[in-house]
Recover the amino acids of this structure.
């Protein structure tokens, strides 16, 4: 594995991050829209065109899942360093459907066998009796993370995110050690900052406090209508005002339920938001969002090490 | 605080466990599963008490409620065990593979005054709730037809090694997928008086069905058509769709949105004549904790609230799920019969030339004895239902 982004050399977190939901038919508004986007981005060239537009409009960070097709994109980025000299990736793992489908097909243990190389870690699982020691859990988690990170080899990945379906499952279960295991591995192996995506921001901040992860990077829905802001919009506002964490706002348009101007203005008025992540399918929409953010946010790019 | 335990730690069991653990009024005191490995990890890292045997768990723990998310064939015996202990119970869908079990258990729970619920989470999806609200308000007049669909990419090749690929365990597209849209149809229209033209097609699976097609007949000439496949890779994840036609318009809904075409000049409040679209952003109520969809939290919240107040009535009770079990049983029985009007019959009047009977698939050559047994079971079930009614009247 090649050295990835180093946080001491990468103090800046872009204000605007480009997301990838639109490329894979993820649309929280309409299944019809999701299908038409899947058709639009069937060919890699269509995805690349939009990414080129985003890059040319000044977006440098691509926050993406670890979908197989992102691997193809990484190949392109690696082979044309002159085209994208400042491009950096924020991988979001795991690509949950891959695992969920495997669990449906093979059961939990069967799915793990499929994704974890045969290293003996699963011997205990095969016997079906022993419980795994912390060392073994560490080993398994590292293997899963490394498998997901392989496609980004040689590319800059200053932040690695854990997807909300996993964060919120672990949060609900109270599986606290998982957060420190992820954090330690991402920092030591990739020299990157761990990030956590959640739909339950206040509850997650409590847990991260408890396990001693300081000033964490957390990505959550933050929008004017409180859509999927579990714990309530008021508790999100209180968290933004009083707690020490770096917030990345997603779903700021609430899947299109809020007019763009109103949505961006509101988010930019909230205190202590580090970045906004958004997806768009056309140059026009990317430019539109970028112009709105430039208009309502005047203080330039934020530092990741914000106090 | 409701003291609750979760039995069965597959995908749904783990999800329920996380959601219950996060619920402000629930206290998860134990989990039970047959995998020692999973129990070991959970016990060690979350501190929850673990059991490999449900009977030992029930004997050792003082429980208000149990959530069962085991493979479907274990639902009936486990629910029976839990009810016998006087404990409230939430069980994953489908309820029972044999609908007479379902009736017996619904009756037993009702007698014991227990809170029951089945995990048909679509009844907690904002868009489907809106359909129900519109139909109850007769927003599209008299309903004439309902199209119930579900598609998803579960079985895309000839393999599979879990209980979901085994008919005897309650696997297959009928129980796993079709049960969802059919349960919605039961919610909107009640229980069908009959079914016809059912096909349980194998596409890739060796033992179970991958496609489910059927026509459900209801009173007053209302009908519903069911089209379901779990072998459809064109959709990213399971998608359930309902379309309802009525004398006063049409409603379409999936989990993201509800589109209604209203003909009336005086539509419901908030609606206009012509097209109306409501999205999940306005149809979903906020939940206490979010994991994969508001509906999963909302259904458990409903259950925990009902247990807290011992409210037997509610959404998705055993009695309501029995309607779906019975509909599925009718469809299995119907699928055995094959085409009701065959080319042979149709042509008999036209030509004297002998027309060969088309080959029957394995599904359709089910032994007649099985069919007879199923009919007897249904007769018995009807008797039990009548007993329930009589018992209710006496009460």
């Amino acid at each position: 594995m090649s050295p990835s982004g180093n946080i001491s050399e990468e103090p800046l977190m872009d204000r605007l991050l480009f997301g990838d939901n639109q490329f894979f038919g993820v649309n929280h508004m309409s299944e019809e829209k999701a299908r038409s986007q899947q058709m639009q981005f069937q060919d890699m060239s269509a995805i690349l065109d939009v990414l080129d537009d985003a890059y040319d409009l000044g977006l440098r960070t691509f926050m993406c899942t670890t979908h197989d097709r992102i691997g193809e994109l990484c190949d392109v980025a690696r082979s044309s360093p002159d085209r994208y000299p400042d491009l950096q990736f924020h991988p979001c793992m795991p690509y949950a459907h891959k695992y969920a489908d495997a669990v449906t097909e093979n059961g939990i243990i069967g799915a793990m066998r499929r994704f974890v190389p045969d290293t003996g870690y699963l011997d205990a699982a095969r016997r079906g009796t022993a419980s795994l020691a912390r060392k073994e859990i560490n080993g398994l988690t590292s293997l899963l993370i490394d498998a997901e990170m392989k496609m980004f080899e040689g590319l800059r990945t200053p932040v690695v995110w854990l997807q909300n379906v996993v964060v919120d499952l672990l949060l609900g279960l109270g599986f606290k050690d998982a957060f420190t295991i992820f954090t330690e591995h991402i920092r030591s192996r990739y020299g990157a900052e761990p990030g956590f995506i959640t739909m339950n921001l206040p509850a997650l901040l409590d847990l991260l406090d408890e396990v001693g992860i300081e000033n964490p990077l957390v990505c959550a829905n933050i929008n004017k209508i409180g859509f999927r802001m579990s714990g309530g919009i008021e508790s999100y506002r209180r968290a933004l005002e009083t707690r020490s964490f770096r917030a990345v706002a997603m779903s700021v348009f609430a899947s299109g339920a809020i007019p763009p101007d109103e949505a961006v203005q509101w988010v930019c008025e909230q205190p202590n938001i580090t970045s906004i992540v958004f997806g768009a399918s056309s140059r026009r929409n990317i430019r539109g969002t970028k112009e709105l953010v430039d208009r309502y946010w005047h203080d330039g790019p934020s530092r990741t090490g914000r106090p | 605080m409701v003291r609750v335990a979760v039995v069965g730690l597959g995908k749904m069991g783990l999800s329920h466990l996380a959601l219950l653990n996060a619920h402000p009024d629930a206290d998860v005191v134990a989990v039970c599963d047959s995998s020692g490995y999973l129990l070991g990890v959970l016990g060690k890292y979350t501190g929850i008490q673990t059991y490999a045997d449900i009977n030992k768990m029930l004997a050792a723990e003082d429980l208000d409620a149990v959530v069962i998310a085991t493979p479907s064939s274990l639902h009936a015996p486990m629910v029976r065990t839990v009810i016998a202990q006087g404990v409230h119970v939430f069980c994953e869908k489908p309820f029972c593979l044999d609908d007479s079990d379902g009736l017996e258990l619904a009756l037993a729970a009702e007698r014991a005054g227990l809170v029951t619920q089945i995990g048909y989470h679509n009844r907690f999806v904002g868009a489907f709730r809106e359909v129900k609200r519109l139909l109850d308000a007769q927003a599209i007049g008299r309903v004439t037809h309902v199209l119930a669909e579900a598609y998803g990419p579960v079985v895309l090749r000839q393999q599979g090694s879990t209980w979901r690929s085994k008919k005897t365990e309650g696997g297959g597209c009928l129980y796993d997928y079709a049960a969802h849209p059919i349960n919605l149809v039961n919610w909107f229209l009640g229980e069908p008086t009959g079914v016809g033209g059912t096909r349980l097609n194998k596409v890739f699976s060796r033992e179970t069905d991958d496609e489910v097609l059927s026509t459900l007949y209801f009173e007053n000439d209302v009908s519903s058509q069911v089209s379901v496949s779990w072998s459809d890779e064109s959709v990213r994840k399971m998608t359930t769709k309902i379309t309802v036609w009525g004398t006063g318009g049409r409603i379409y809904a999936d989990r993201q949105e509800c589109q209604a075409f209203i003909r009336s000049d005086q539509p419901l409040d908030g609606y206009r004549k012509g097209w109306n679209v409501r999205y999940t952003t306005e149809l979903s109520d906020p939940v206490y904790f979010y994991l994969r969809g508001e509906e999963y939290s909302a259904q458990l919240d409903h259950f925990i609230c009902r247990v807290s107040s011992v409210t037997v009535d509610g959404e998705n009770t055993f009695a309501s799920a029995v309607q779906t079990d019975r509909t599925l049983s009718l469809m299995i029985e119907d699928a055995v019969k094959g085409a009701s009007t065959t080319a042979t019959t149709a042509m008999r009047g036209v030509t004297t030339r002998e027309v060969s009977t088309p080959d029957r698939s394995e599904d359709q050559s089910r032994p007649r004895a099985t069919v007879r047994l199923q009919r007897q079971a249904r007769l018995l079930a009807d008797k039990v239902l009548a007993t329930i009614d009589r018992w209710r009247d006496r009460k």
In short: Residues 23 and 205 of chain B are 39 Å apart (CA to CA). Chain B has two domains: 2-122+292-320, 124-283. Confidence is low (pLDDT under 50) at residues 352-365 of chain B.
